[in-house]
Recover the amino acids of this structure.
């Protein structure tokens, strides 16, 4: 008799939580993906959310100044061709992409440098330079709050698949893959650090450890160094392919640029 | 037996210079019974290696009875009690090349250079730990009885 009652009790509890789960599913709460922001302490989350405290916003401001400054043999500013910041809304959410008449994808920084060289007829900015990061932050900031929306361009597919291969391959002296940490062990502690799911939602990010803004490329180079793998060259397409894969994996998640990270 | 290449290289090294004690790891069953240096390791040095995140790297993934290291990992079992669960020979193989015990293991092989891809230039061709360091770590793990 007692056993029976216990059984009924359990069934009711189970049914209740199942109903709750259904309700959550209706609200779209089944997406279990977590931005790295959610793995940070409250103080850092506040810093990211508060424009007056987020150090990345200084770069966005600098980017705004550069946007209006004429440069190169063409003597044109970004604004001369593109108009105001609003023209960049949603752009960062769909990069990397393949430029018109090209056959390989470029990331957002690569696209900006294309405009530098081809349209302004000026020298490209060096990787991780203040100017390039500031312009990338300015452009990406216009997509803050928008869902990541990679383009359907079929020409991107082979590059994205290559990115997935790179994600899964073990490398470096420690013989680890990105997937081992970020898929299989996300949420666990690597020494004291919570392993994030590695969604590229916040880039470029202000990283406290760097004391400056940095690109996704720089972040990936850090992870490669961590497993004692040879980083790809700065201009290597491997980064763009990984970026493509990561953006697809994060499809629909919200952009938060400029992110803050520890 | 380790990969033939490594074994051959180790033998070639060992043949002319008998002074340099570098013994090719001989796998017997699920362990490597003999010391890689012919000498027993030093448990105190081993503890320092295990605790050091830039040398042993163990606490990235493991926790262990090393109270002064606040930041420990939880990707793998605690090292506490390892010395009562495993013999020295079993511990030695686990450190030298854990993939011999579990092909899918994420634990790096600490004394193997073959089968790795895109190793950073400054680490290329080098094992993570030297033979003497492996022995020190084994000696330390063997003391972890509970």
């Amino acid at each position: 008799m007692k056993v029976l009652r216990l059984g009924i009790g359990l069934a009711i509890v189970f049914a209740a939580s199942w109903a709750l789960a259904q309700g959550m599913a209706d609200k779209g709460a089944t997406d279990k993906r977590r931005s790295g922001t959610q793995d940070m302490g409250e103080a850092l989350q506040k810093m990211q959310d508060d424009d007056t405290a987020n150090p990345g916003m200084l770069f966005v401001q600098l980017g705004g100044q550069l946007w209006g400054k004429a440069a190169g043999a063409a003597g044109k500013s970004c604004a001369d061709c593109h108009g105001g910041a609003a023209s960049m809304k949603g752009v960062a959410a769909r990069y990397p992409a393949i430029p018109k008449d090209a056959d390989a994808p470029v990331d957002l920084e690569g696209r900006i440098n294309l405009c530098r060289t081809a349209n302004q007829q000026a020298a490209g900015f060096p990787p991780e330079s203040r100017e390039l990061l500031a312009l990338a932050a300015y452009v990406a900031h216009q997509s803050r709050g928008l869902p990541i929306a990679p383009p359907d361009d079929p020409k991107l597919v082979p590059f994205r698949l290559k990115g997935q291969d790179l994600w899964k391959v073990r490398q470096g002296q420690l013989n680890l893959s990105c997937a081992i940490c970020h898929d299989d062990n996300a949420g666990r502690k690597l020494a004291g650090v919570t392993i994030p799911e590695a969604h590229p939602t916040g880039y470029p990010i202000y990283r406290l450890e760097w004391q400056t803004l940095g690109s996704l490329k720089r972040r990936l180079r850090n992870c490669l160094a961590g497993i004692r793998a040879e980083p790809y060259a700065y201009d290597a397409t491997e980064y763009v392919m990984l970026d493509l894969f990561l953006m697809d994996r994060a499809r629909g998640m919200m952009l938060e640029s400029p992110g803050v990270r520890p | 037996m380790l990969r033939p290449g490594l074994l051959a290289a180790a033998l070639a090294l060992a043949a002319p210079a008998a002074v340099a004690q570098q013994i090719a790891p001989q796998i017997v069953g699920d362990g490597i019974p003999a010391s890689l240096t012919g000498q027993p390791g030093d448990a105190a040095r081993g503890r320092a290696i295990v605790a050091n995140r830039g040398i042993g790297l163990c606490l990235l993934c493991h926790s262990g009875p090393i109270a002064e290291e606040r930041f420990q990992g939880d990707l793998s079992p605690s090292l506490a009690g390892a010395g009562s669960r495993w013999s020295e020979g079993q511990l030695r193989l686990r450190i030298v090349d854990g993939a011999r015990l579990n092909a899918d293991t994420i634990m790096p092989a600490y004394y193997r250079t073959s089968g790795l891809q895109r190793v950073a230039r400054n680490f290329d061709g080098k094992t993570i730990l030297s033979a003497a360091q492996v022995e020190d770590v084994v000696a330390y793990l063997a003391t972890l009885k509970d």
